[in-house]
Each structure stands twice: as C-alpha cells, then as structure tokens.
C-alpha cells in the first residue's frame, strides 16, 4: 500500500492522517467524510514554487480552484502565496468571500456572462483569460461603459494532444476552448485586442489536458507558443509579459500511475522556456501555471462506513458504502480508479476481492472494482485515497443524499471546514405547490 504525505499507521494499527486516527475522525465527524492532509497540500504548493524561486524565474502558481473550492481551501492557497484560477461567478464569489487578494485572481471560462465579467471588473481582479471573439467584444463593450482598463490573457489552443482520458482533453484543435493557434484565429484576436486601449494584453495561455505524466506535451506547447510570440513580435510589435502553460500535472491514484513531482515538471518547463526564449532573442516572460489536481488530489481521503454486502456466487462480492457517485462521480464518469484500505486494519492481509458499490440507485454507481480486502466486520471504515481533487467539487445531491463534511487535519489537530449538509439544506430552495 502506498501512503501519501502525513498518512500512515498509528500505534493502534489504524490509519492515521495528519497525526489523527482515521477511526476517531469518522466517529467525531460522521461518514462519509472528506479528510485533507494540509501539510501535503503545503508541500505540493511549495514544490511548484521552489523550482521557480531557485531559478529566479518570475512566476505565478495559480491554484485551479475548480479542483476543490471552499473558503478554507482558498485561504490556505493564499497562505502559501498561490494565485487563483476561477472559472465562474460562483468560484469568484467564493474567492472574494475567502478574502483572496483580487490582484492574484485569474478568470477563465468559455462562456463568461456579462454579469460575471462585470463582477470581475468591479472587483478589479488580476486578469481575465479571454477565450473567444464573443467575449473579446463583450469585454470591450463593458470596459467602454465602465471606462475601465483590464489586464487580459488570450487563451489559445496549440493543437497538442495530451495523453489522458478523452473527456478531459482541452488542448486539441477540435476544442470548445480558446483561439486556434494554427488557423490564424489567435493572431486575429491578438491584433484586435491590441487595438483597444483599455486592454492591457499580458500574454497568452494554453491548457493541454489533465492528469499528464510526462513533460513532453508541456514542452511542445511552450515551443508552439513561443514560436508564435516570436512571429508576433516582428509582425505586431507585441512582446508577451506572461506565458501561461495551464495545469494538468498528473498524480498517482493507483500503482499504474507514475507522475513526476511538481518540482520536476516545473524545472523542465523552465529549462525549455529559457532555451526557446534565448534562441529567438525574446525577453523572458513570467511563467504562469495552473495546477488543480496536483495541489489537492493526493491530500484528500474519503472515509466511508461499510454497510450491506451482496455475494453473486461465482461472480463477485459487492460491498456497499454510505456514499458513492454523489460524493465521487469520477469512477462513473471517467472510469477513474482508486486504491482503498480498511482504516481499522490497513495492513492486514487481504483475503478476498470485493467491489465497492455506492448507495445511489444506479448500477453504474461503483467506486472501486476488484479491491483486495481483509474480511470486513460490522461498521468497518473504508478509506479511499486521492479523492482531494474533483471529488467534493463535483459532488451532487443525487437521490437527495446530503453532501459530506470536509475536515482539514494538520499536526494532530482537525478543523471542520465544510459542514455536512442536513435534510433541511436539501429542501432549502424548494417551494410548495401552492
Ligand atoms: N487550467 C485550465 C484552463 C483548466 O481547464 C484546468 C482543468 C486546469 C487548469 C486544472 O487542471 P488540473 O491541474 O486539475 O488537471 N473533472 C476532471 C478534470 C477536468 C479538468 C478541467 N480543466 C477530473 O475529475 O478528472
């Protein structure tokens, strides 16, 4: 079994996270429960920043808050000196409520509404990553109306396929995101943006995909973008201050995954950008990146109580937990794989193979297929690893299951950072027929 960060086994033989017994956490806060190892989030954040600092490269590491956006998490990101990527009015609202420094907030999205853009401008956020011509014109209109300046990046699609699950590819040409770099749209957008005096065009952005294990895709993207920047320097007299290479750095969900460390991804990117920039005699831009999953993914563990089981003789044993696709939709949506242990006997030898079912009324609500486990007792606690990214943030109330609580643990202390939903919460917005 692979343990992450400050997760390990305590003297009772139970799973321990951040110095606390997982069984005690489940007892105190109930299940299902999302538990975050705060020290590991800090370690990941520092890994990304360290490489930039050592190489003395101006940079922003913007946490892609779609991975897990709550007030406490954004305050932690701020403590670690990260910037922030938001993709909706709701994520921006959360950032503002967390007191996140507005100048370090970047606003993404392929269909930002007028209200969202106005909210961003009124709050003077750091920059808007303009995705398409519609947005470029709308933003121009709003800047005129408000007589205000705005810093922008242009999102481009460099036509690079990152090797990962199809549904989460965003960098290829046939994409709903960004201005195409090859067919001239990006250049057209840039020259239009440069003509409008209320835009301060900082540079360009791309995001080539998610859960990427190698640096090749990032290096290739850097090359394509910098080649274009060189062309635009000559043709449009435009020199980018910022090169944003997006997120997508992979993490280890199971033993099949072999990601690099944050420090390694960044070091190779820096090396490549420096060499490209010098070969074209361009001035070195700031490098911005936007990790989401790799900052919070492996620090999250979900604790479930085991309930019913069903044996299908000669086929398999189903073991059901008290959550499922409502708190982790990734297995159902992407066939995502996870590892898990019984938190009260994590090291005990497995003596059977079971499949972990959720409690939602849907056959596809399976969390893990074919998991080796020791014999289970009543009320055992199952700990599923690496649920920190896109778990809580994609959670839902299917079957009217209340969303679980979220607890942060660090140095032997726990803090409730999101309350468990109640049944009253579930009907809070409902109105009666008459
Ligand atoms: N920047 C941009 C522009 C993005 O679109 C994304 C993710 C990120 C940064 C952060 O990517 P990360 O470092 O977390 O891979 N729900 C899917 C992931 C969708 C990612 C969408 N964009 C999942 O659960 O795997």
UniProtKB/TrEMBL annotation:
SUPFAM superfamilies: Alanine racemase C-terminal domain-like (SSF50621), PLP-binding barrel (SSF51419)
Residue ranges of domain Orn/DAP/Arg decarboxylase 2 N-terminal in the record: 40-296
Residue numbers bearing the N6-(pyridoxal phosphate)lysine modification: 66
UniProt: substrate binding residues: 293, 330, 334, 362, 390
Alphabetical UniProt keywords: Amino-acid biosynthesis, Decarboxylase, Lyase, Lysine biosynthesis, Pyridoxal phosphate
Record-listed E.C. numbers: 4.1.1.20
Family: Belongs to the Orn/Lys/Arg decarboxylase class-II family. LysA subfamily.
HAMAP family in UniProt: LysA
Biological function: Specifically catalyzes the decarboxylation of meso-diaminopimelate (meso-DAP) to L-lysine.
Pathway entry: Amino-acid biosynthesis; L-lysine biosynthesis via DAP pathway; L-lysine from DL-2,6-diaminopimelate: step 1/1
Residues where pyridoxal 5'-phosphate binds: 248, 290-293, 390
Domain of life where this protein originates: Bacteria
Protein name: Diaminopimelate decarboxylase
Taxonomic lineage: Bacteria, Bacillati, Bacillota, Bacilli, Bacillales
Cross-referenced PROSITE patterns: ODR_DC_2_1
Cofactor(s) listed: pyridoxal 5'-phosphate
EC main group: lyase
Entry-linked Gene3D superfamilies: Alanine racemase, Lyase, Ornithine Decarboxylase, Chain A, domain 1
Subunit structure: Homodimer.
A single GO molecular function term of this UniProt record: diaminopimelate decarboxylase activity
Catalytic activity: meso-2,6-diaminopimelate + H(+) = L-lysine + CO2
GO biological process terms held by the UniProt record: lysine biosynthetic process via diaminopimelate
Residue span, Orn/DAP/Arg decarboxylase 2 C-terminal domain: 34-388
Record: active site: 361 (proton donor)
Species of origin: Bacillus salipaludis
PANTHER family linked: DIAMINOPIMELATE DECARBOXYLASE (PTHR43727), GROUP IV DECARBOXYLASE (PTHR43727:SF2)
């Amino acid at each position: 079994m692979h343990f992450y960060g400050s997760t390990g086994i305590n003297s009772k033989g139970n799973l321990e996270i951040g110095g606390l017994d997982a069984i005690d956490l489940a007892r105190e806060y109930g299940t299902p429960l999302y538990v975050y190892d705060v020290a590991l989030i800090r370690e990941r954040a520092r890994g990304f920043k360290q490489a930039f600092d050592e190489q003395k490269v101006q940079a922003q590491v913007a946490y892609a808050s779609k991975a897990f956006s709550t007030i406490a998490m954004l305050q932690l990101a701020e403590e670690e000196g990260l910037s922030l990527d938001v993709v909706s009015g709701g994520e921006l609202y959360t950032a503002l409520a967390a007191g996140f420094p507005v100048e370090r907030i970047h606003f993404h999205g392929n269909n930002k509404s007028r209200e969202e853009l106005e909210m961003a401008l009124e709050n003077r956020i750091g920059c808007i990553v303009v995705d398409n011509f519609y947005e470029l014109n709308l933003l121009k209109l709003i800047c005129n109306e408000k007589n205000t300046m705005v810093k922008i990046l242009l999102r481009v699609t460099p036509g690079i396929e990152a090797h990962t699950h199809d549904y989460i590819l965003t960098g290829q040409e046939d994409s709903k995101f960004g201005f195409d770099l090859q067919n001239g749209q990006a250049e057209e957008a840039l020259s239009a943006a440069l003509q409008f005096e209320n835009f301060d065009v900082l540079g360009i952005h791309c995001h080539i995909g998610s859960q990427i294990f190698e640096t090749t895709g990032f290096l290739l993207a850097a090359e394509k973008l910098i080649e274009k920047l060189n062309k635009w320097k000559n043709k449009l007299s435009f020199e980018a201050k910022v090169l944003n290479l997006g997120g997508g750095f992979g993490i280890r969900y199971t033993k099949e995954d072999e990601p690099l460390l944050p420090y390694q991804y960044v070091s190779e990117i820096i090396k490549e950008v420096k060499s490209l920039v010098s070969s074209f005699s361009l001035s070195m831009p700031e490098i911005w990146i936007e990790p989401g999953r790799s900052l919070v993914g492996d620090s999250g563990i979900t604790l479930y109580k085991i309930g019913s089981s069903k044996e299908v003789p000669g086929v398999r044993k189903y073991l059901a937990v008290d959550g499922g696709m409502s708190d982790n939709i990734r297995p159902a949506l992407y066939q995502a794989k996870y590892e898990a242990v019984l938190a009260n006997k994590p090291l005990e030898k497995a003596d059977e193979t079971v499949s972990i079912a959720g409690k939602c009324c849907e056959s596809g609500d399976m969390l893990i297929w074919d998991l080796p486990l020791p014999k289970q007792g009543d009320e055992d606690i199952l700990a599923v690893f690496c649920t920190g990214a896109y778990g809580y943030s994609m959670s839902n109330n299917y079957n009217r299951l209340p969303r679980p609580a979220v607890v942060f643990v660090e140095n032997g202390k726990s803090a409730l950072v999101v309350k468990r939903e109640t049944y009253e919460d579930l009907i809070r917005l409902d109105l009666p027929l008459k």
